[in-house]
Amino acid sequence: MEWETVIGLEVHVQLSTKSKLFSGSSTKFGAEPNTQANIYDLALPGTLPVLNKEVVKKAVMFGLAIGAEIGKRSIFDRKNYFYPDLPKGYQTSQLDFPTVGKGTLTIMLEDGSEKVVGVTRAHIEEDAGKSLHEDFHGMSGIDLNRAGTPLLEIVSEPDLRNAKEAVAYLKKLHSIIRYLDISDAIMAQGSMRCDANVSIRPKGESKFGTRTEIKNINSFRFVEKAINYEVQRQQDVIEDGGSVVQETRLYDADRDETRSMRSKEVENDYRYFPEPDLLPIEIDDSYIEALREQLPELPEAKKERFMSQYGLSDYDAGVLVVEREMADYFEAVAKTGGDAKMAANWVSVELQGLLNKEDWEIGECPIQADRLGTLIARIKDNTISGKIAKTVFETMVEDPAGVDEIIESKGLKQVTDTGAIEALVDEVIANNPDQVQQLRDGKEQVIGYLVGQAMKLSQGKANPGQVNQLLRDKIK
Amino acid sequence: MALDKSEVEKIAHLARLQLSEDDVGEVTKRITDILALIDQMQSVDTENVDPLAHPLDVVQRLREDEVTEHNQRDELQKLAPLSEDGLFLVPKVIE
Q1: Per-residue model confidence (pLDDT) at position A444
Q2: Residues A222 and A335 placed together within one structural domain of the fold
Q3: If A141 and its partner were Cys, which of A191, A430, B25, B87 is the partner (CB 3.0–4.6 Å)?
Q4: Are residues A394 and A450 in the same domain?
Q5: Is residue A292 in some structural domain?
Q6: Is a pLDDT exceeding 50 seen at residue A1?
Q7: Are A311 and A345 in contact (CB under 8 A)?
Q8: pTM to 2 decimals?
Q9: Which of B 11-30 lie inside 8 A of A, CB atoms?
Q10: Is the Cβ pair B69, A262 closer than 8 Å?
């Protein structure tokens, strides 16, 4: 039977604020345990929440970026459950009146077509602390530094149809969040986390199958692997005559499998009720419009601009705008280099290759935008050839000196002196009588070979255009 | 709407309340009474009434995003039965 996969994602992002959602404790990552947990975070009796302004602002900015309805009156609710890393005994969240309502996100599919994915809602809630289970003589250790860190939980519609679409959605979400600078959104560090709701149904069926929720997926790659594993598992269960059980499953990256959590851990009876310690948040139109004004240029708009302003192809522009830092880098290179297409090429091929090889973020790269821009300018003004530029580029990784200094000190300057080139050309003609004759007989493609020989003799430093012209002049 | 004993036991478990056999009967009766009151309230037509999240007709005030708290770990951990290496210790919570 042919099956169709249905996926919805729940993504938690930690909003990058200085202080917590409801208290003035710091949210800085990596502090000594419990040094950033105050009396409210510990839920001591009598303490009350005071809502952080910046959290509301960041949530609304996200909503505007995905064209969502903004909740004019949003309300916090208590989600009740017991776990020691949640000392209050409830998580303060939003249920029926979230700050961000329905919106959409457009993703690019593998075949280049676009798909609009629905976002059901995005609500503000607090993070829990961390439990450590090793080395405490049979007890668990609790660190509440993270308790109360603001989260935005972004819930998608069940619009995704395979693991690749899920990854594309997640990457697009990541891109927008980084553009807005509302979260670090680093999956490996947990500042962006993803749960996937997965079900399958016979192709053509309109009713959804029973879904499972996969937790503990902490990289883009694992999202794809976890979903693919789970889809296959559900198919096997059904084709063997069984039925899928609605449950929460954990993804185990080491074994590349999902497995059922014990039922005790997933008692989904949260007994939500409105949080009496917080009043409704009211958001008016002037606030929304003021924030809309502040929104940065988002990936799609930037892509359109790159295509029209710089004449880049759809593909090149798409690659360059994924990360805001990369897009800014490209624009700086294009400005200094004076050639946007060359800049796009160098950034997406040479530079991207280097970043991949060294596992660097753009900010860590020793080749700064102004240096790469200067390199391109030197190709443009014929100081060096494109080929030599690659040598210079490699040197720049190790050598922080200016581009011109490197060209000078390594003697890489292109030879444009006619006398010197003439000597080269004469040597090539003398050494290759057969090819010279062939060219005279009209075999045009031989010119490439002869130019190549001259370039070799010059160790790449001759200007190929000049060589070509001189060869033709002399052989004619 | 009446609750049966097993439902009351489930709610007590979710709330981590220990009820003795004797208590369950009494508690079941009291919760059932409360539910009767709720049934009565639900019979009111609220078609054109906005949901009420809070009885006060005021809105939430927001605070600036500033760190105003400092580290009080040592004082706070004196309140806890057990702590070690800066962590609060609790009975093991993983199976």
Answers
A1: 85
A2: no
A3: B87
A4: no
A5: no
A6: yes
A7: no
A8: 0.85
A9: 14, 16
A10: no
